[in-house]
Amino acid sequence: MKSLTRYILMLLVIPNLLLSCNNFSQPSGPETEDVNSAEDPSGEIMEETPVAASEIEFQTTSEEIREQIGKDENESEAKKFYAQRNYAPAWNKANVRVAFLEELQKADSEGLFLKDYYSDEIEELLKTPAELKGSETALLDLLLTEAFFTYAHDLYYGKLNPKDLYKTWGVSRKKMDLQRLLQENLETGTIAEALDSLKPKHQIYRDLKESLEEYSELRQKEEAHEKIAEGKFIKAGEKDERLPSIAKRLQDLEFLSENVADSTYNDRLQEAIKKFQKEKGLQVDGIIGNSTIAELNMTAEQRYGQILANMERWRWYPRDLGDHYILINIPQFRLAVVKEGDTVRTHNIIAGTRARQTPIFTDTLQYVVINPTWTIPPTIKAKDIIPKVSRNPSYLSSKNMKVYSRDGTLIDPQKIDWSSPKAKSYTIVQRAGPSNPLGQVKIIYPNQYLIYLHDTPAQNLFSQNQRAESSGCVRVENAVDLSGYVLRDQEAWNEEKIRETIASGKTIQVKINQPIQVHHFYWTAWRAGDKTVFTEDVYRLDKEIYSRLLKRD
């Protein structure tokens, strides 16, 4: 990055050097001093640059651009761009060119990599800009255009396609006309502003830029620490030879003020372990198992990769989440209701297991069902219910479940051959009641995944820190209160009316009038104050994203 900065600087000051060569009465010393003073020790461009920078122009022709384009057999945004402008060069003006190169150097701070944007090729051409021939300036023009489109795409859409990584991905994005964006901002000289407009404006993303800078330094300074071996679980009062290493690691991570461990798992060490488990989204039981060991073994390099993965995710998400929305973070097992930028309420949630993941998608609330029945989803029916009925014919009646044919006719389950493939074609419905897993309410936003928010009779599960327990739907703690919130603009459905309806046992559907969006998102790193918080990557996605980010197809 520093070397490219140096070549940008050379591009700025070459006209001054050329002027001094043509004016023999003027000493060359001051110009040399200006060149040296223009770059600070960090390699960044100083705020003051020569006025003559705006006068540097390359004389590239349309014919030279057309010739360079002809050497590229692939269809690209750049080819379309030049064809639309009759192959006129785009970057002859130095002030526009320099503004773009300075903005491009910020790629690393955005969680991207400068090398992905033709920086080596551009740097090579800029070593001697005054000596470039027409074909070389045409190549430079083309490289700058390719770099713009690639960088702009990655800032707005992300470098990776989330559908290549997620089994289910339902977050749509508005398309951006990058051709028009470049053309308009070349004319106005506002390339930097154009690129800035593509970046996510979410506070979490902006905060992660600070975390990225922090961990970029930490990974360079970090000394190798002893990797703690996995093994049998360690419980309070037990002895284990790994405990001194565990205590040392907790001290390094600032969860212990001093190393308090010998080979016995004492109270102070257990207190530190519980604090560590809570922050990392693990089960807070004070037992040192392999999940806790894995988090303790995470290096600054791995955390750096985790931050990059999360910044990439935020490039995938919509730039505008709406004025009033529900934001779910699956790994954090947390739901927040946000209105006009303020978080007005939060709820603990239970999300899908790694085998039955809660999908990533966005939709809009439609209605609340009080005393819901439960139509068994196809996967649960095939994998859970039918095997249980095959073993125990009275299972359905014990769970207050009814069976219906495709035309809605009630069927006697005793007359069904549950070992037959046809068994999967029947609809199984559990009536409302204490044993219904949907609890007292469900909040619906119709979607292709058959996912919704709902209550649960198993309230004890919310006391756990690690809550990947569902078959994909989102169980909400205090779901009745959340239902009251989304219906609060309707006087007929105040809290008292909702409670009365629940007590009646009748299944009632109530339309939601407020336009409230629901965002099922996934992120495992964020800032709290001046500290970066990491939680367990429950679906094991971060490592794969980081690995792919390091590559450029």
Describe, in plain words, how this protein is organized in 3D:
By secondary structure, the chain is of the alpha+beta class. Among the domains are: 2-199, no CATH class; 321-373 and 432-521, L,D-transpeptidase catalytic domain-like, CATH 2.40.440.10. The chain has 19 helices and 18 strands. Strands 1, 2, 3, 4, 5, 6, 11, 12, 13, 14, 15 and 16 form a twelve-stranded mixed β-sheet that branches. The protein has a four-stranded antiparallel β-sheet with strand order 7-10-8-9. The chain is globular and about 85 Å long. The two termini are 21 Å apart.
Helix and strand topology:
Layout: H1 2-21, H2 29-37, H3 62-70, H4 77-84, H5 94-104, H6 119-125, H7 134-157, E1 169-170, H8 178-188, H9 191-198, H10 203-221, H11 243-252, H12 267-279, H13 290-296, H14 300-316, E2 324-329, E3 334-339, E4 342-352, E5 360-364, E6 367-370, E7 374-375, H15 378-391, H16 395-398, E8 401-404, E9 410-411, E10 427-430, E11 441-444, E12 453-454, E13 468-470, E14 474-476, H17 479-486, H18 495-504, E15 508-511, E16 517-521, E17 525-528, E18 531-534, H19 542-549
Parallel strand pairs: 1-5, 2-16, 4-13, 12-14
Antiparallel strand pairs: 2-3, 3-4, 4-14, 5-16, 6-11, 6-15, 7-10, 8-9, 8-10, 11-12, 17-18
